[in-house]
């Protein structure tokens, strides 16, 4: 088993991912774009021995630089920046007035005017330039694989890279590109699906089924993602052949999280039956908590990402300001019952303590260095 952990009183759970990333524990906080991953959250996870990640996909280059400086003011330990790999799209295929008409009732209810000219994407080139200039320790990405020159520049800068895959075929593509590690994103994961080879429906493979297949198919370290909320999930991921776990929803309710208070409130009262995969907010499939917006937009024609995302941005912002969670994108994995409003360090420490106990109890080679 490639991901077998080595248990030690000082090192915690040592795996290939802890050695690659230079961290103490095989716990990575997911790069949740849109506000939850504040410098405080990222630094708290890293200080606790995991890897904090800044979800920077929607941030301007200046904002990314400022956030990186904020993280470094709080920790000297490794951290990551996560970006979306740009996908080809043609905005001329969509009629802005038609899209606006389908959303008009929500703007009217929230008391906001329809936006004027919209900007659909941030410049990936400019965002990545900040990552390189700041020599961020780890760069993770989703929605595809960066072009060869980008990966070459990251390697030359000594930056560790990690890509997202929702199928074995995608994991092999990530490995073939020379990426250092791959995150196997199971169907249970909250937030956007990382599928980039084929329709997203083909990438809705459960974490328990996906991780061992990816672990058997690639030689690079594997992170398991999707529904992992505590030490039981981490221990299970290691047993399946992963080298660590990526956790997102588990950190959303933490005090260091930038998620809106209404978002946290709804998350902490949600059940496993309340999540859905929707394209309504961004045009790209994403798992979140059901609300009025997802239910009323179900079956409606929506533009592809990033066009739909741009057209709903003002609605989501106004809803957040007014604490109208029925119109907010409430991304969540399938185990919201396990979310706790505790400090991020406590999430990491409890996760590792429970996983360490489970691994040590079940591993007959404990203490042998295996």
Automatic annotation (TrEMBL):
Protein name: Probable nitronate monooxygenase
Family of this protein: Belongs to the nitronate monooxygenase family. NMO class I subfamily.
InterPro entries linked to this entry: Aldolase_TIM, NMO
This protein's UniProt keywords: Detoxification, Flavoprotein, FMN, Monooxygenase, Nucleotide-binding, Oxidoreductase
Function recorded in the entry: Nitronate monooxygenase that uses molecular oxygen to catalyze the oxidative denitrification of alkyl nitronates. Acts on propionate 3-nitronate (P3N), the presumed physiological substrate. Probably functions in the detoxification of P3N, a metabolic poison produced by plants and fungi as a defense mechanism.
Keyword S-adenosyl-L-methionine (UniProt): no
Catalytic reactions on record: 3 propionate 3-nitronate + 3 O2 + H2O = 3 3-oxopropanoate + 2 nitrate + nitrite + H2O2 + 3 H(+)
Essential cofactor(s): FMN
Transmembrane segments: none
Keyword field contains Flavoprotein: yes
Record-level GO BP terms: response to toxic substance
PANTHER family: NITRONATE MONOOXYGENASE-RELATED
Superkingdom, natural source: Bacteria
Lineage: Bacteria, Bacillati, Actinomycetota, Rubrobacteria, Rubrobacterales
Species: Rubrobacter marinus
GO molecular function, one term: nitronate monooxygenase activity
């Amino acid at each position: 088993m490639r991901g077998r952990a080595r248990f030690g009183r000082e090192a915690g759970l040592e795996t290939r991912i802890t050695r690659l990333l230079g961290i103490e524990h095989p716990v990575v906080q997911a790069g949740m774009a849109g506000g939850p991953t504040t410098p405080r959250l990222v630094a708290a996870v890293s200080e606790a021995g995991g890897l904090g990640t800044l979800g920077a996909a929607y941030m301007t280059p200046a904002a990314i630089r400022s956030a990186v400086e904020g993280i470094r003011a709080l920790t000297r330990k490794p951290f990551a920046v996560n970006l979306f790999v740009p996908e080809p799209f043609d905005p001329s295929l969509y009629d802005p007035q038609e899209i606006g008409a389908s959303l008009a009732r929500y703007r009217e209810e929230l008391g906001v005017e329809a936006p004027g000219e919209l900007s659909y994407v941030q410049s990936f080139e400019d965002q990545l330039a900040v990552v390189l200039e700041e020599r961020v320790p780890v760069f993770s990405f989703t929605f595809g694989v960066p072009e060869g020159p980008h990966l070459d520049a990251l390697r030359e800068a000594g930056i560790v890279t990690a890509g997202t895959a929702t199928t074995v075929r995608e994991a092999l593509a990530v490995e073939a590109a020379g990426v250092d590690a791959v995150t196997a994103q199971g169907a249970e994961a909250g937030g956007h699906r990382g599928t980039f080879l084929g329709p997203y429906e083909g990438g809705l493979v459960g974490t328990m089924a996906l991780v061992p297949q990816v672990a058997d198919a690639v030689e690079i370290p594997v992170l398991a993602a999707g529904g992992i909320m505590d030490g039981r999930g981490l221990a299970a991921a290691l047993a399946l052949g992963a080298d660590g776990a990526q956790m997102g929803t588990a950190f959303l309710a933490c005090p260091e999280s930038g998620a809106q208070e209404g978002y946290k409130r709804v998350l902490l009262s949600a059940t496993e039956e309340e999540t859905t995969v929707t394209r309504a907010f961004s045009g790209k499939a994403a798992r979140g908590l059901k609300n009025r917006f997802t239910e009323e937009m179900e079956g409606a024609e929506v533009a592809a990402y990033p066009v739909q995302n741009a057209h709903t941005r003002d609605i989501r912002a106004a809803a957040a300001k007014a604490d109208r969670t029925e119109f907010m994108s409430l991304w969540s994995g399938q185990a919201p019952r396990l979310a706790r409003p505790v400090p991020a360090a406590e999430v990491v420490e409890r996760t590792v303590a429970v996983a360490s106990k489970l691994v040590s109890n079940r591993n007959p080679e404990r203490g042998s260095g295996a």
